[in-house]
Amino acid sequence: MHKFLRLKNVLDYKIVMEIFKFSRQSWNNWKKENRPIITLIEKYFTNEDLQEFLVTGKISKLDDYIEYLHSSQEKSKEYNLFKEFLEFRKYKEMK
Questions:
Q1: What sign does the CA torsion over 58, 70, 4, 34 have?
Q2: pLDDT at 3 over 70
């Protein structure tokens, strides 16, 4: 089995500066201090994600994923109810 390594995202510091409203020097200091927020942003967001957030106030792929999770939970509930119904029906037929 191959392990896939995710390379550290190289973000445009200007976009991050716009989000945090700080200077490039602050960005560099935070990176040197290994602040968790920097690791989080570099690991999970792209420049496009951050730019979309600045323009629209949201990241559509995250919204889409959240919507998918909610819909799959609903489908899962329906499936479980149907499965219980079939098991109950099978039980009744055996009597």
A1: positive
A2: no
Q: How far apart are the first and last CA of the chain?
A: 49
Q: What is the token pair recorded at 62?
A: 């995250």
CA–CA distances in Å: residue 83 to residues 46, 87, 89, 95: 41, 6, 10, 19
Nearest to 53 by CA among 41, 39, 68: 41
Gap between the Cα atoms of 60 and 41, Å rounded: 16
pTM confidence score: 0.62
Kindly list the distances between the CA atom of residue 18 and the CA atoms of 23, 28, 43, 92, in Å, as whole numbers in the listed order. 9, 14, 19, 65
